[in-house]
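Sharing a chain and its predicted structure for anyone who wants a worked example. Both blocks are below, sequence first, tokens second.
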Amino acid sequence: MQAMEQGPDDADLDLVAALQIAPRAPLNTVAEILGTSASTAGRRIQRLQQLGLLRFIGTVHWSLITTGNPYVVWIKCRPGATVDVAAAIQKVPQAQSLITTTGDSDIYCTLYPLPGTDPRRLLTRTLPEIPGIASIQSHLVLRSAREAFTWRLDRLTARQTQELRQQADTLPDAAPTTVGPLNEIEFRTLQLLVEDSRISAAQVARELDVSRSTAYRTIQSLLESGAVRPRVEIEPAVLGFPITALFTLDVQPRHIPAVLTALGEHPCARFTVMTAGPASILHHGVFTDENHLSRFVTDDLGALPGLNGFNTLIALSVLRRQWIDRDDDLVLGHRAHDILSANHHTRQVR
């Protein structure tokens, strides 16, 4: 296998695309669908993990770790202060994602109201008191049309995609609105799935000192309920999409549902939500190059109904996603597990 310091090759990308569809599928099944061996697929995954490019994580349903919908926040910094401000925001537990940008804002972040959070204090004191911040604009997320775990590489055949989807049939088609409280075994299993979404029932049984059948039933219950969504965590830039663009769109109210659906279903979409702010829709898209981005603006945005105008910012650096800190497109740290553990004592447990 070629050294991957130069980036994943085509076989690596096929493997990532397959695991994006069926993140918990048995490796021998995935390998057979892709026409390779399980040992080769295993070596490729291990190599990507050792390079810090890939992790298998679980995304926890909002209702289990927050007390309300998230906020998207745009921050302008005083000249020369962006790096220090971003470093300070990384210490804020509620900051789930953090990106430095071009355009009329220097920093974009999403804030999740973890248990015990006072959103008013967070938005009017905690953040504004950070030295170097010139202004803050925050928008409450009202509805979600696309979340990052649903973005996938489109490079497999229709047959391969269908066979892989059959391996992922325990996952709900859409995330539920809420998820009920978890008992202690369910929560501890959830923690393990957050750290490694491919963990087996046998491993969970050993970690929690329960029977394998109990571990299996608990894992399936968490997956089927939507309490946790397994995913392959890897930066789009590593996969050939180096440009992340953040769009805020001013859409006439009666056209918001149609535009939200159209953008949420677009192949470039990683995060598409309706917000309460000057712009009604926020859309994150990933692109292969500037021409790809320009075609999206002129052809796709240009065709949307009721669009009064939009603003575009380009990500300069991704510092955090899913509470996991990044560095030069690497997936680092164990922040998500720490956040989940720190807030468990304030959640209701059956």
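Comments welcome. The mean pLDDT is 90.
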